[in-house]
């Protein structure tokens, strides 16, 4: 047994040594790879330094073109405008469809009878960019709206649904059109067009689309019916409260139940009625808020106004200066590759 234990301990020592050697070789290979990367980087910097005249020349040429020549050649009639609107999923889908239709429009489409294309043609719209303003409020409202719809269908007893329907994961499943507020950027080729006219015509177009109108009328009908029921409930509660108040005043018994509004009390009917009054009032406020949002399919949050085009690389001079540097790097690498091909040719032939 002792001999077997000794052999077993030796095997464990060998395994540990192999493991340490494995980690050591792995760490050495990582540092070796980092060293090679730095060596290539320093070699590339050396090539740029060797061809500094080409590099500096292209950078200066790009900067001069972007800062002075391009602005002088720019068409001053082209303007970019931006507006923020608030809608519902149906109207937002129509907005995105309009933007896609305009951006994919060809010269042959200008004679189309499509109302959207004709509108873009009359307003000289050449490009439309749409992006959602993602607010946590929209995500929460959309999440509970899905739960409420499933509750109405009787799925509230299905705990598996609620376990799978997580609030944290819901935002990643939302489409851009699910967010109520949308930022619309429009490029117009005619500087003489009044932005107010453009805004008015766009809103008139969106709000009169059949899908938007039908959804608006359906939602308003549901919400207005619910508003009437809530108001009726509040009136009924007021009537009951008044009747009980009058009855309590006429009561001569010392043990008669009195009207109590002390919130610390939980043992009378009046308290329950007051609690339901607060509940229905909050519901009425939320319903009236939704009704106001459905008065139009698309509502303006921020009016159409001119904006300055922004670039990810800063101003035009900086952008073209960087592009000039990248072009110089490509030329230097191309020349180096050409020398490598000549060397390879001499060795092989």
Provide an overview of this structure.
Helix 2 (52-73) runs antiparallel to helix 11 (316-348). The chain has 349 residues and is α+β, with helices and mostly antiparallel strands. It is built from 11 helices and 4 strands. The longest helix has 49 residues, at 2-50. The chain has helices at 2-50, 52-73, 89-103, 115-123, 136-152, 159-164, 167-173, 195-207, 210-250, 269-293, 316-348, and strands spanning 79-87, 125-132, 181-188, 298-306.
Summarize the structure.
This protein has 349 residues and is of the alpha+beta class.
- Spatial order of the strands in the main sheet? 2-3-1-4
Which oligomerization state do the chains in this entry correspond to?
Answer: single chain
Structural class: alpha+beta
Shape: flat
* Number of extended strands: 4
Q: What pattern of helices and strands is seen along the backbone?
A: HHEHHEHHHEHHHEH
- Helix segment count? 11
Separation of the first and last Cα atoms: 70 Å
Give the rounded overall mean pLDDT. Answer: 78
Q: How much beta, percentage-wise?
A: 5-15%
- Largest beta-sheet details: 4 strands, antiparallel
Rg for CA atoms? 36 Å
- DSSP helix fraction: 55-70%
Low-confidence stretches: 259-265
């Amino acid at each position: 047994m002792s001999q077997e234990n000794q052999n077993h301990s030796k095997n464990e020592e060998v395994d540990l040594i192999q493991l340490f050697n494995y980690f050591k070789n792995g760490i050495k290979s990582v540092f070796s790879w980092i060293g090679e990367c730095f060596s290539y980087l320093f070699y590339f910097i050396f090539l740029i330094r060797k061809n500094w005249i080409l590099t500096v020349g292209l950078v200066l040429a790009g900067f001069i073109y972007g800062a002075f020549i391009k602005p002088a050649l720019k068409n001053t009639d082209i303007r970019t405008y931006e507006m923020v609107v608030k809608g519902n999923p149906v109207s937002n889908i129509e907005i995105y469809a309009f933007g896609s239709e305009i951006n994919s429009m060809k010269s042959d489409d200008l004679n189309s009878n499509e109302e959207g294309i004709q509108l873009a043609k009359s307003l000289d719209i050449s490009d439309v960019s749409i992006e959602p303003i993602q607010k946590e409020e929209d995500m929460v409202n959309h999440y509970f709206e899905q739960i409420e719809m499933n509750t109405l269908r009787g799925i509230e007893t299905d705990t598996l649904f609620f376990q799978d329907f997580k609030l944290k994961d819901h935002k990643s499943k939302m489409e851009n059109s699910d967010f109520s507020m949308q930022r619309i950027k429009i490029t117009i080729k005619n500087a003489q067009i009044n932005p107010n006219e453009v805004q008015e015509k766009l809103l008139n177009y969106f709000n009169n689309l059949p899908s938007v109108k039908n959804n608006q009328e359906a939602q308003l009908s549901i919400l207005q019916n619910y508003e009437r029921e809530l108001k009726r409930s509040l009136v009924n509660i007021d009537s009951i409260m008044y009747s009980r108040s009058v009855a309590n005043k006429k009561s001569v018994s010392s043990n008669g139940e009195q009207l109590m509004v002390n919130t610390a009390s939980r043992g009378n009917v009046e308290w329950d009625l007051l609690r339901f009054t607060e509940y229905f009032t909050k519901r009425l406020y939320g319903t009236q808020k939704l009704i106001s949002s459905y008065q139009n399919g698309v509502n303006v949050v921020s009016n159409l106004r001119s904006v300055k085009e922004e670039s990810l690389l800063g101003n035009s001079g900086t952008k073209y200066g960087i592009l000039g540097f990248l072009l110089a790097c490509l030329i230097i690498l191309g020349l180096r590759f050409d020398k490598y091909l000549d060397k390879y040719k001499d060795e092989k032939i």
